[in-house]
Design brief:
36% of the residues lie in helices and 21% in strands. The protein contains 18 helices and 20 strands.
Length: 457
């Protein structure tokens, strides 16, 4: 789409006229930088504000656009007072007082996803959920590429949505977080799914219901709605007036796992598509993820043969149930991306026996850690706790399994090496965010990998 068409769409939807608009971009992370580049391309006047003294992409912006006003070190009321429109980055809460005041006096709010949605005329697939969204996003991206489609994959995962825009892209596959969705109104995906809802980000939302309501916005527009038949909170969002599909492991669903004499298969309406044992990624949660990806690919019209071939070669994401090593019969698995309780539960459900030594802890984000207790009793022989909120997990577990408070990840790994026996799995699946001790979950996972590799040597 050319700039003229995009500008007309923005003017129609948000009264954003490049001759009169003054856009304030709030936050200079990856998303804020992508928005800055895009607004510059459209010729729209903007400024940037960030509460940090030196935002991570400050130098990049100054090198490329030295004439753009950038205000750092706090939010200044005078800067907000000049804005006709604000674009708030996902990392910034909409509850910030100056943001709420701006909205109250009629300043328009839009997101980078709104800009993106007004700028494409090719199919968009939108994927969200408390857990599994990155896996399903990359699975579907691999399927589309195997089918020979020029596919752009990103959003919350990897490349910001606006940086994906290109004339030769045939399909856009976007992972979207609740923070992106809560400030988005223009999304109209040809297929969209909310994979599941479990406790997460309760430090930013007043309740689970409020969190789920933001996730629900992935279904905006009139495309096909894909639902997880195993999640009552998700299936309740079904709109009777829309085309819909379901996937699931425990309930009857359009896409399901069936057992036939030849074994277990991923299936559509009872017709076998792919043998479960052909999947390289372990765990029943990854069977559900594969079903969701197949369903979304089906909406796009991707050939089943190409989708199955992609699944046969899909090795999973780094830091998500990533096999690290087998040392003296003990498997070490990195699931650092499990930053909430639901993700940890899903990881543990993939094990058949109570032979897991679990390393957990970090920033709990207000989650109810007692939800872990049933699965801990079933799958875990010892719980090794790290991080700021390790004590909260200990209190919630209440001696349901043996608990060791270690404080740091390195100490937990050393303890695990001492108590693990051949046949056990040492699993880092923290059920918490990492920011109390690490810069992100990737760093936490990388430390785990390096420490385990040192044991191997």
């Amino acid at each position: 789409m050319n700039n003229g068409v995009i500008l007309k769409a923005l003017d129609k939807q948000f009264s954003l006229n490049k001759e009169t608009a003054k856009v304030l971009v709030v936050g200079l992370g990856k998303t804020g930088l992508s928005v800055a580049y895009y607004l510059r391309q459209l010729g729209i006047q903007f400024a940037i504000v960030d509460s940090r003294d030196k935002p991570p992409f400050n130098d990049d912006l100054l090198a490329e656009m030295p004439d753009i006003p950038v205000f750092t070190g706090g939010f200044d009321a005078a800067v907000f007072a000049l804005a006709t429109h604000i674009i708030v980055s996902p990392g910034v809460s909409m509850e910030e007082p100056l943001i709420k005041q701006a909205l109250a006096r009629g300043v328009y709010s839009l997101s980078d996803i709104d800009l993106f949605a007004c700028s494409v005329d090719k199919p968009i697939v939108a994927i969200t959920g408390s857990n599994g969204k990155s896996t399903v996003t990359t699975m579907l991206g691999a399927m589309a590429k195997a089918a020979g489609k020029h596919t752009a994959v990103g959003g919350n995962l990897g490349t910001p949505a606006l940086d994906l825009l290109a004339d030769d892209v045939e399909i856009y596959v976007l992972e979207l977080s609740s923070f992106q969705l809560e400030r988005t109104t223009q999304l109209n995906a040809v297929a969209a799914t909310l994979l599941n809802v479990s406790a997460d980000h309760l430090d930013r939302y007043v309740s689970m219901a409020a969190y789920a309501e933001q996730k629900r916005k992935v279904y905006g527009g009139n495309g096909v709605m894909l639902f997880n038949a195993d999640d009552p909170a998700v299936i309740a969002m079904r709109d009777a007036g829309r085309n819909a599909l379901t996937f699931g492991l425990q309930q009857e669903a359009d896409y399901a796992v069936i057992s036939i004499p030849e074994g277990e298969f991923l299936a559509l309406h009872g017709r076998p598509i792919l043998a479960v044992n052909e999947l390289l990624v372990a765990g029943i949660h990854n069977q559900a993820n594969a079903l969701a990806a197949l369903a979304l690919g089906g909406v796009l019209g991707l050939p089943e043969a190409a989708m199955c071939e992609a699944l046969r070669h899909y090795k999973g994401l780094k830091h998500r149930m990533q096999f690290v090593a087998n040392i003296d019969g003990v498997s070490w698995v990195n699931d650092s991306k499990a930053t909430n309780v639901g993700a940890c539960i899903a990881a543990l459900q993939g094990f058949k026996n109570a032979d897991v030594i679990l390393i957990a802890g970090g920033e709990a984000k207000g989650a109810d850690m007692s939800e872990l207790v049933p699965i801990l009793k079933e799958k875990v022989k010892a719980l090794l706790l790290i991080g700021k909120d390790g004590v909260l997990i200990k209190q919630a577990v209440n001696d349901a399994v043996p608990v060791y408070e270690l404080g740091t990840l390195k100490k937990a790994i050393k303890k695990a090496a001492k108590i693990a026996q051949s046949g056990d799995t040492v699993l880092l699946s923290p059920a918490c965010a990492s920011l109390d001790q690490f810069s992100n979950y990737q760093e936490r996972g990388s430390v785990f990998i390096s420490e385990v590799k040192a044991l191997e040597k």
